Amino acid sequence: MSLGFDPLPSSTAWNTAVSFTTNTNWQSYSGESTMGHLVQMAGLAVQNFVSAAVGIAVAAAVIRGFARRRSDHLGNFWVDLTRITLRVLLPICVLAAIVLILGGAVQNLSPGTDVTTLAGGSQTVTGGPVASQEAIKELGTNGGGFYNVNSAHPFENPTSWTSWLENFLLLVIPFSMPRLLGRMVGDNRQGYAILAVMVVLAVVSVTSICSSSSFRGRQAQATGKCVTE
Predict the structure, then answer these.
(1) Where do the H-state alpha helices sit in the chain?
(2) pLDDT digit string (tens) for 88-134?
(3) Are the CB atoms for 165 and 100 separated by under 8 Å?
(4) Cβ(73)–Cβ(161) under 8 Å?
(5) Other C-beta atoms within 10 Å of 80: how many?
(6) What's this model's pTM, rounded to 2 decimal places?
(7) Radius of gyration of the chain, Cα coordinates, nearest whole angstrom
(8) Is the Cβ–Cβ distance between 35 and 45 less than 8 Å?
(9) Cβ proximity of 166 and 135 under 8 Å
(10) Secondary structure of 162-176 in the HEC alphabet?
(11) Whole-angstrom distance between the N-terminal and C-terminal Cα of the chain?
């Protein structure tokens, strides 16, 4: 399961451990050529679950602070952590991983496949438990990824509709939290107000990005046309 890779330098191992424990998930290496499948599954993927569950549990504790004004009890962290992992994150990720596999994402324990490139060269393409890690990477709003390019790699995000699915996974929990707030404090209007602000900010951001990209595209086409003429 190590695929014959050398052990990580101590500085890289420490950086990775801290990064994935704190939900930062920053990688200074290319995962498929640095870590074996066991580390990817038992180390990074597990921390993707736990660090995301910790964030949700902390948010729940904050909400209880508003809802339980006459009580000093904010709940049991370990109970919250276990329930969030087993009842929310894991079931959704199982379904999402299956859908990603159906969409063409890689999910195997292959040490690699030798292929011939279009230029006639030889290259080893690394496989691995990609779809399962991709599911929790997106659902838990984690970074990095099996191939260290987030969802830009075709093995992690093969088609346009899997891209939509991964965007949905990224947003589903953050956009559900205001609803949770409204139900826990007993006033759904508060949750809807926060949700409305989130939607407005998201729409404005996406519109601005798309408009800017479209403008730069038209500008590039105009410049190219002028140069050609």
Answers:
(1) 10-21, 37-38, 46-67, 77-83, 90-102, 130-139, 160-185, 188-228
(2) 999 999 999 999 999 999 999 888 888 888 888 888 888 889 999 99
(3) yes
(4) no
(5) 20
(6) 0.82
(7) 21
(8) no
(9) no
(10) HHHHHHHHHHHHHHH
(11) 58
